[in-house]
Fold these 3 entries.
Entry 1:
Amino acid sequence: MNRIGVTPEMVSRVIPVDPFDLVIFGGTGDLARRKILPALFRRFCAGQMPDDSRIIGAARSEMSESEYRDLVRDALAEFGKKHAEDKHAVEAFLKHLHYVAVDAMGDGGWKEMKALLRDEEGLVRAFYFSVGPSLFGPLAEQLRENGLADRETRIVVEKPFGHDLESARSLNEELAQHFYEDQIYRIDHYLGKETVQNLMAVRFGNMLFEPLWNAQYVDHIQITVAETVGVGGRGSYYDHSGAMRDMVQNHLMQLLCLIAMEPPAQFEADAVRDEKLKVIRALDPVDPDQIVRGQYTSDGSMPSYREDAENPTSKTESFIALKCYISNWRWANTPFYLRTGKRLSARASEIAVVFKETPHSIFGIDSGRHRNVLSIRLQPDEGMTLGVTIKEPGPGGMRLVDVPLDMSFADALGPDAEEVTDAYERLIMDVIRGNQTLFMRGDEVEAAWAWTDPLIEGWERRGDSPKPYDAGSGGPDDAAFLINRDGRRWRGIKI
Ligand code: NAD
C-alpha cells in the first residue's frame, strides 16, 4: 500500500473485455510498432486480452505470418518497456498475431482477410486504420464491399482528421457512407491520458472545485503543451500543417473543452461529447493581435525549422500562443491562454486554473496578494498540484507563503502507475468495450476546424511570417508580451 492507500491490486485491476478480432491496417507502420502493438501487449500481460482474441496485421508488404511475428517481436523489444523482458510473455502474445497482405486501393488480399475473420456470436470485430487519411475512405468502402463489416463492426481512425473544415467534412461523409457514427472511433490520444480523465474526476467527483469553476472565481486558464523535439523526420508533412493544425485544433481544444464544459448528466459518450461541442461552438473568433506564431532557428548544434522542413522560405509555425474567450455565462470575459511549440527548453504539458485574488487582504499590504492555482500536469510527471497560501512558519508576525498540495500519480499510485497510464492501452480497450466517451465525434471535429480555419486563412491572406525564436528557449518574446500586457504571466514551468 502506498501513501494514499492505493494498492497495486487496485492499480492493476482489469475489467475483462469480450474476445476480439482486431485488424490493424498499417500493421507494419511506425505507429503500429511504436504504440498500438506495445499497448496491446501490455494489456495482454495485464490479463485483459481473452485467450481467443486475435490481432491481424494488414499492410501492403507481402510477408509470412512468421516474418510478421519477427517484426512485432523486434518492435516489442524496442518499445514494449519492462514487460518485453519476459520472453515467455512475448512468445505467448505473438501466438495471437496473424498477417494478411492487403491493398486498400486494389483487390489484393481481401478474400484472404474475409477467410481469416471469424463470424461468431459475441466476438468483437474492429478495424484500426493506422494509415494515411487518404486511405480512410477507400478502406471503409473495401470493408463494406467485401462483406467484412456489419452493424456491430467498429473502425478506429487516426489523426490527422482533415486539414481544414472542408476536408474533415468530406472524410466524415466518406465514412458515413459505410458506417454509422456509433461505429467510428476517432482517436485523440490526449483524451486517453490518465490525467485528462482525472480532470473530469476532480471536477465532477468533488464538491470542492465545481462551485468555484467559473468566471466569478477564476481569473484565467493556461494550457501549455511544450516539446523539446523539432519536426525532424516528418518535416515535410509538418510544413503543410503547423502547430495550429497539428496541436491546437485537436489536442489543446480537447483539453480546453474538458476544462470548460458544463457537467454532463452522465459520464456517457454522447452526454460528454454534447457538452464539449457546446464549448467549441461558444468560442469567439480570435483577433490577429491575440495570436503569436513562431518558428525555431538553429542553435548551432541542431537544424533550424526551415532546415528540418527542407523549405528555406517556409512560413509555417512551429510555435503558437493565443488568447481566446468562451462566450457563455460560465466563462464570460475569462481569458484562456493557449501555447504549444517545438524545440522549446522543456517537455512539459500543463493545464493551470488560476483563481482570482482574495478580494481583501486582512494581513496588510506586506503580506502580498495571493492566488490559488490548480495545476494539472500531463507530462512529464502526471499529477496535480493545488497551490494554497499559508503562514510562513516561525516567529516574526504573519507572513504568508504559497505552498503546493502536490499529488504526483507515480508517487501516489506507486511504481505500477506507469502501467495504467498509457493512452493507447486505454483507448484500444475502450474500442473493444464499445465505449466512445474518449473519442471525438464527427461534429466536434468539424466545429473545431470551423473555429481554426478563419484564423489560419487570416494569417495566410495577410502573408504573416512567424517570429523566429531560439531553439531551446521559451518561444518568441511576443508570446510573453501577449499575456504580460494583461498584467499576467505564463506559469513558471520551464519552457
Ligand atoms: P507509416 O508510413 O509508418 O505506415 C503506413 C502503413 O500503411 C504501412 O504499414 C503501410 O504498409 C500501410 N499502407 C500504405 N499504403 C497502403 C495501402 N494502399 N494498402 C494497405 N496498407 C497500406 O505511417 P505511420 O507513422 O504508422 O502513421 C499511420 C497513421 O497514423 C497516419 O495517419 C499518421 O498520420 C497517424 N499517426 C502517426 C503517428 C506516429 O507517431 N507515427 C502519431 C499519430 C498519428
Note: DSSP finds 17 helices and 15 strands in the chain.
Entry 2:
Amino acid sequence: MLIVLLGPPGAGKGTQAKTLAETLNVVHIASGDLLRDHQARGTDLGLQARSYMEKGELVPDDLVIRMILDRMSEESGRQGAVLDGFPRTLTQAEALEASLEGLGIDQVLYIAVPADELVRRLGGRVICRSCQRPYQQDSAPERCADCGGELYQRDDDRPEAVQNRIQVYEAQTFPLVEHYRSQGKLKELDGAQAIEAVTRDLLAAVAA
Ligand code: AP5
C-alpha cells in the first residue's frame, strides 16, 4: 500500500504520518526528516540542501527524487509506505509514478488547513533532535516523550521562512491537488480539527 500525505507546511503531515504508518504497518518516509538527518550528519546532500531549507525554498528536484527513490528501494521488502512531504512538485510526482512501474499510488490524503492556523502552529512548534517528533511548545514535555531526545525550534520555523514556505507551497505544490484529484486518487480532509479527529478521518479514508 502506498499512501501520499499532501498538505501545506504545518498541516500535521508528520504528526499524522507516524500514527498512520504504525496502524497500517508500513514504513513512514518523510523527505524533510531525511534532509535534516543528512544535514546533521554533514553529508554532501545535507550541505547542498541547507541553504534552500533555511530560506524555505524547495531543494532541487533531482536531489530529492534520488534520495526518496533510494530510501524506497531500501524498504522494498515492506508492505508499503506513507510518503510525507514527497512529492512536492509535478516533476517529483512524475518521477515517483515512473519508478512504480504501473503499481501506482493507492491514495493521496490531502490535509487542508487555513493559512492563519498554519502560521500559529509553526510559530509554536518544537521538534525532537533525535526522532523529529513535533510538539507544540506550550504543551511539550521537557524532552521527547518517545525517545528522550532534546527539543528545539527548526530554523525554517522563523516567521520570514514560514511565510515563504506557505507561498512556495501554493505556487509549486498545490497544483498536485488537482493532478491527483483528476486521477481520482485524492481525498480531502479537514486538518483544522483536533489531532485525534484528523487521525480518525484519515483512518476512515484509508479504509473506505
Ligand atoms: P518538511 O519538513 O517536509 O516541512 P513541511 O512540509 O513544511 O511540513 P512541516 O514539517 O512544517 O509540517 P507538517 O505538515 O509535518 O506538520 P507537523 O505534523 O509538524 O520540509 C522542510 C524543508 O525541506 C522544505 O521547506 C524544503 O526546503 C525541504 N523539502 C522537504 N521535502 C521536499 C521535497 N519533496 N522537495 C523539495 N524540498 C523538500 O505539525 C505542525 C505543528 O502543529 C506541530 O507543532 C504539531 O504538534 C501541531 N499540530 C499538528 N496537527 C495539529 C492539529 N490537528 N491541531 C493543532 N495542532 C496540530
Note: The mean pLDDT is 95.
Entry 3:
Amino acid sequence: MGIFDTHAHYLKRDFPEDLEEVLNGLKEKNVERIIAVGCNLEASEEEIALAQRYDIVYASAGIHPEDAGKLPSDWEERLGELLKMPKVVALGEIGLDYHYDDAPEKDVQRDVFIKQLEMAKAPDLPVIIHSRDACAETMEILREYKPRGVMHCFSYSAETAREVIKLGMYIGFTGVLTFKNAKKAVQACEEIPIDRLLLETDSPYMAPEPHRGERSDSSMIRFTAAKMAEIKGVSTEEMIEIANQNGRRLFFGE
Ligand code: NI
C-alpha cells in the first residue's frame, strides 16, 4: 500500500514552472492518493480541476479562517456547488487562526467556521480543521457540533489530542513532527491511538527534516512517516499502510 497524503495544496502560484512534472512524478515515488485541499473559493476550484485531471488526486473545498474576511455575498451557494463536484471528498480547510494580528476578526472567523460545519452535515462530508492559537474556542465549537473529520497539522497539547480523539476525530501531522523543537507534537502523537493518525505534508509548506524550509511535495511524507513510526514503535512501511487505511476510512468510507 502506498502513501496517502491527506492534506496538500497544489496551486499554480506555488508550482509555477513544474506543477505537472511534480504531480506526474509522484506515482513513481509511491504516492497513491492525495487530497488537494482548498482554502478559498478560487483555490478550491483550482484543486478540484486538478482532481479531474490526475487519478491519484482528490479534492476538498472550503474557506480557511485567514480567508474568511473578504467573502463574496454568495459564498455559501458557491461553496455548496463546489462540494457537489466529482472527487470532492471533504469540506475544508476550515477553523480558527488567531496567530496573525491582521487575521480576520474573531467573530467573523467563528461565523464562517460554524456555517461550514453546518454545511458539512447534510451531505455527511468529513471536515478538515485548521486551528492555530485558538485551542479553547475551537474545542468549544467542536464539542458542540461534533463533526466527523480531522484536526490537521496538530499543534496543541497531548491533553487536547485526547479530547479530539474522544470526539471521534482523527489527527494529522505534517513535517513539523520531525523538527528538533517538536517535543509537544511528539508527546501528542504518543497519546493518539495509531488507528486515528493521518499523514500529511501541507505542501508546499512544512517540509520535514532534512528538507526543512524547502518547498515540500507529497513524496517527502516518508520522512514524517519514519518519525511517526518511531514514535509508535512500528516500521515505516507499517505506519504508511496504517495511516493510509485510516485516511481511506475517514474520507472514503473504506
Ligand atoms: Ni493546509
Note: The mean pLDDT is 97.
